[in-house]
Design goal:
With 1029 residues, the chain is an alpha+beta fold. Helices cover 52% and strands 14% of the residues.
């Protein structure tokens, strides 16, 4: 006992002597380690008999244990652990507390009771988010509109004066009706925005629901990030997001991007010895590992931070920004017209040129009561403000919101989840799609179909013919150089393979065809170093020491031509080693090309045994041997093309969108798959620059890249940098580029593209966060669907713009001309607010929810700078607006004599005809170019429903709300006349669409300038004497 105690004291003394050359952080780590070791040594000596101590090693430990335990027997509960101590271990990187924990390999039991108990004791893996915006919030936002506030003020004053003059029974109509109309406008706007906000919240929950690989009861399985509990063992790979705070258990070359937590861009190495701490919300930049969860949800640093952040659903898309500019420009015209109307009406009132309902002069100078003057002025201001309300097309941003929200919902149903609103509309302008091959164009269901040993193909059932030494190397190279794993199925009759599709295919082949026992092989070797696979290196390697003979072996696996370049010898079918000369190398290259031409992904295996001296040298440089290897053999992996992918590619090409395939496969496999998918024609080959390798593209000069990029259809053996380079080059040439990606290294290209499309199944969390849209089924056909919906969004917005501007122009001109010439406006404030409601909300709902049609994919893509209002739209809207102006002004000046009615009935006829014209014009707006506006009408039930509701409400307004709407009842003949006049817009629309228009776009600024100039000239030509002022 005394000898052991002396030895331990010597060890402790040596540990406590801290070298003066160490830096401060390293001194602290040294002292922490010393304290841990000393306390454990003393505890061991006091609690174990001498006989046991003799068996203990006399060497100092070099690192903390590889595993920690957080699994607790059900009968003991969680008394040994509290959430605070577990949180502090990771938060403060406390190795002292860490070493007091033990060992876990198989994860938690995973039973429902176990998970529930852990969730109750340590919390769930969810964050407290700020409360969602209530309906009242959106009501307040709608009320904040300046024009609404002015209208409410005018209505309140009118209500007060009306009740004072005419009593409560009759005096509330004018002011009260405006308030009711304003209430309707506010309600509809608030309901629409509230629903949109709720929809974004739902999409946010779906987006946050990440799938995580965990080990429970010894089995690897996928669960939702929200189901992760303390004690779970989580498997991490490149591109994953760390789902909770935890500790490193085992793994290799793990580097983590902690920039989201610390702001530092340098990757942090995580290992057993110095830094075993992992933080929720960080991303895996390289390597792979297993971690044990110590804190979840609000107990993590990330949870605390995320609880204070709310997702901004008020993102303004580029189209909304352009529409806001358009709204501002039109609003200026409306403000000018309203100001002129206000001036004319005030002048006419104060000069005694206006009369009341009984035909008496309203203003008599000082004899007129102050209440009457204020009431009249308020009424005039209300009319002017209402003109502004109608003139400003506030429905445009609402239409965009409705269209985007509707399209997002429908796209979600068609396997595309939108993360950024702007992507919906930008996708409609896409001119080029750069797509991955694996999983996007292909099914990602891989299977080994060919195996070559040396220069001889091996039949699938001929594992017995492979030399024993080579078979052992193949099994060793696969079992120990993989990020995948094997589990027995619950039935016990078959295996379950996990990992990437390529890894699963190789593991399946070696286990089922070559009878490999993975667990047994792991017991025979010790892994020394691992180089994990990534898309730049396109290979992975492992250095291991055999326990049988203590020799060091290096195994490599990866892209066939890259592994072949690292070899100087090879094994033949008999297991003998041969030199790899130029002739032999050429033969192997032909074998690789032959497999690639059959659309097979070719993977090679290589091996080398290292002398101990060389291993020590390489261990110092932390690099595996990469030359003078021995080639073991090749496998050919088949990944069939997706059904329907050729049709989807052809649809994109027919729509004027170029499809380019960018893949890491070799040039022959890439060409074969691209031809099968329809990206390449059979006559296109490497000679006409349609197919190029990433390295060649990289070495082009900027001028050469710019010249050749449009011709390229396939880029093989590309790195993520090559993809980024192509995206940048295409954008410089004016293309609108959509890019698909799934790996962490694809993030720069996804961010640089106009539309980043990540894969929902194979995509890493880094790729998803960098993308705008997530393709949930990894299918290229879904990319074509996104393209179609993008065009539909843009097209629907254009339909609504045409519809609304027609109403704006007609309403402005009619009210302005009537006010200037006759001193009165035919449409009252309530009537104009009703028209505004039809335009802004019901019209937006009807036209913004049209579904994509085949015609959309028959047009070329819309350019970045193409104007919102095309020449075709100008032609349509000006024709309809001029027709409405001509008809309604005729009714204004000649309506009484034509129909033999009173002025009140005439004004009702104008109001009714105006509204019905908009109803009929909604049908015209459905098709901007097609003459048949009824095509597909039966499919849009919402459109028909809104038209029906509008007509019913209009009948109610005219026939039953006389006091409220200031209308008179119309007889059947008058209704027939109104409908006939409005229905004439259909043949007019058909005829106008026969008129060809120039492709050269109008400029809105010129149109607005010309309009303002015309109004000014019109006002000057009429003069005060023509206005009876």
């Amino acid at each position: 006992m005394s000898n052991n105690l002396d030895l331990s004291l010597v060890c402790m003394e040596s540990l406590l002597e801290v070298p003066s050359t160490l830096s401060k952080p390293k001194k602290r780590w040294h002292l922490a380690f010393a304290a841990i070791y000393c306390s454990r040594a003393l505890y061991s000596l006091l609690n174990h008999p001498v006989s046991n101590n003799k068996k203990r090693s006399k060497t100092l430990p070099t690192s903390p244990p590889s595993f920690v335990i957080l699994d607790v027997k059900p009968q003991h509960g969680f008394s040994n652990f509290d959430q605070h101590s577990l949180t502090q271990i990771v938060k403060h990187k406390s190795l002292t507390q860490l070493l007091e924990l033990g060992d876990v390999e198989n994860g938690i039991h995973g039973a429902v009771e176990d998970v529930t108990r852990r969730r109750k004791a340590f919390g769930s893996n969810a964050y407290r988010k700020p409360p969602t915006k209530s309906f009242f919030y959106f009501v307040v936002e709608a009320i904040k509109d300046v024009t609404i506030l002015i209208l409410v003020a005018c209505a309140t004053l009118s209500l007060g004066f009306g009740i004072k003059q005419q009593g409560p029974k009759e005096g509330w109509y004018d002011g009260g009706s405006i308030l009711v109309a304003v209430f309707l406008v506010i309600s509809v706007s608030a309901v629409s925005n509230f629903r949109q906000n709720r929809q974004f919240d739902k999409l946010s929950k779906v987006s946050d629901n990440i799938q995580v690989d965990v080990v429970r009861d010894g089995r690897r399985q996928q669960i939702s990030i929200f189901e992760v509990v303390v004690g779970d063992v989580v498997c991490l790979k490149i591109g994953d997001q760390v789902p909770a705070d935890g500790l490193f258990l085992a793994g290799h070359s793990l580097q983590v991007d902690e920039s989201s937590m610390t702001g530092e861009s340098d990757h942090v190495e995580v290992n057993t010895s110095l830094n075993p701490f992992l933080f929720s919300g960080t991303k895996v930049a390289d390597g792979y590992a297993r971690m044990v969860v110590t804190s979840v949800g609000m107990n993590t640093t990330w949870g605390e931070m995320m609880s204070t952040i709310s997702r901004d659903t008020n993102e303004q898309t580029p189209l909304q920004a352009r529409l806001n500019k358009l709204t501002s420009s039109i609003g200026k015209v409306g403000l000018a017209v309203a100001s002129l109307v206000l001036l004319v009406l005030l002048v006419r009132y104060f000069t005694g040129h206006t009369k009341d309902e009984n035909g008496n002069q309203e203003f008599h100078g000082s004899l007129t009561k102050a209440d009457d003057v204020v009431n009249a002025v308020v009424r005039i201001i209300a009319v002017a403000v209402t003109i502004v309300v109608v003139a400003i097309p506030e429905g445009l941003p609402l239409a965009v919101t409705l269209t985007l929200a509707y399209s997002m919902k429908r796209m979600m149903a068609e396997q595309a989840m939108v993360r950024r609103l702007s992507a919906c509309e930008t996708m409609g302008s896409a001119t080029t799609i750069c797509t991955d091959k694996t999983g996007t164009l292909t099914l990602n269901q891989m299977k080994v179909t060919k195996f070559w040993l040396g220069q001889d193909p091996i039949r699938e059932d001929a594992s017995s013919s492979i030399a024993t030494n080579v078979l052992k190397l193949i099994q060793q190279g696969v079992a120990l150089n993989t990020s995948g794993s094997i589990n027995m199925a619950t039935s016990g009759s078959r295996y379950e393979f996990s990992g990437s599709p390529t890894e699963k295919a190789i593991l399946s082949w070696v286990v089922l065809e070559l009878n490999m026992d993975m667990e047994e092989l792991k017991q025979t070797c010790t892994i020394l170093r691992v180089e994990a696979f990534n898309s730049e290196k396109k290979r992975s390697g492992v250095a291991l020491r055999s326990k049988a003979d203590n020799k060091v072996h290096v195994h490599w696996k990866g892209a066939a031509e890259m592994i072949l370049a690292m070899c100087s010898t090879y094994y033949d079918a008999s297991g003998s080693m041969r030199d790899l000369d130029h002739v032999e190398r050429t033969t192997f290259e032909q074998i690789i090309q032959g497999m690639a031409a059959s659309s097979l992904r070719c993977i090679a295996f290589a091996h080398s045994q290292l002398p101990e001296e060389e291993h020590e040298i390489r261990e110092a440089t932390q690099k595996l041997k990469e030359d003078s290897l021995t080639l073991i053999g090749f496998v050919g992996i088949k990944d069939p093309c997706r059904p329907g992918v050729r049709k989807a590619v052809e649809d994109c090409q027919y729509a004027g969108v170029n499809v380019k395939m960018i893949t890491g496969d070799n040039i022959f496999t890439a060409r074969a798959i691209a031809t099968e998918c329809g990206i390449l024609r059979p006559d296109q080959d490497m000679n006409n620059e349609a197919v190029v390798e990433g390295e060649v593209f990289r070495q082009y000069t900027p001028e050469e890249r710019t010249e050749k990029v449009d011709k390229i259809r396939v880029m093989a053996r590309s790195s993520p940098f090559d993809k980024l380079l192509m995206v940048q080059c295409l954008k410089q040439k004016g293309h609108v580029v959509a890019v698909t990606g799934d790996g962490a290294n694809d993030a720069p290209a996804l961010k640089a593209a106009d539309i980043g499309l990540s894969m929902g199944i194979q995509g890493t969390e880094v790729a998803k966060e960098s993308s705008d849209i997530i393709i949930l089924d990894d299918n290229f056909a879904s990319v074509a669907t996104v393209l179609r919906w993008g065009r539909c969004v843009y097209n629907n917005i254009q339909k609504f713009i045409q519809f609304q501007l027609t109403v704006n122009v007609a309403a402005l001109v009619i009210n302005f001309v009537a006010a200037v010439s006759a001193g009165e406006v035919p449409l009252t404030a309530v009537q104009l607010l009703w028209v505004n409601l039809i335009m802004d909300t019901l019209g937006a709902l009807a036209l913004a929810t049209e579904q994509p049609t085949k015609e959309l994919m028959e047009k070329p893509p819309m350019g970045r700078t193409e104007p919102l209002i095309s020449n075709i739209m100008w032609r349509n809207l000006l024709a309809q607006a001029l027709y409405q102006i001509a008809v309604l002004l005729t009714l204004q000046f000649k309506g009484e004599s034509i129909f033999g009615v009173s002025e009140k009935v005439k004004d009702t006829l104008i109001f009714n005809t105006f509204v019905l014209c908009q109803v009929f014009n909604e049908f015209n707006a459905r098709k901007l170019e097609k003459k048949n506006v009824f095509q597909g009408l039966h499919k849009n039930k919402l459109f028909l429903g809104i038209i029906g509701i509008t007509i019913i409400l209009q009948v109610v307004m005219v026939e039953f709300l006389k006091k409220f709407a200031d209308t008179e009842r119309l007889d059947w003949g008058q209704w027939g006349a109104c409908i006939g006049i409005a229905a004439a817009s259909w043949p007019l629309g058909w005829f106008v669409k026969c008129i060809p228009v120039s492709d050269k776009p109008f400029k809105l600024s010129k149109v607005v300038g010309i309009s303002l100039q015309r109004y000014r000239l019109l006002f000057l030509s009429l003069g005060p004497h023509k206005c009876n002022v």
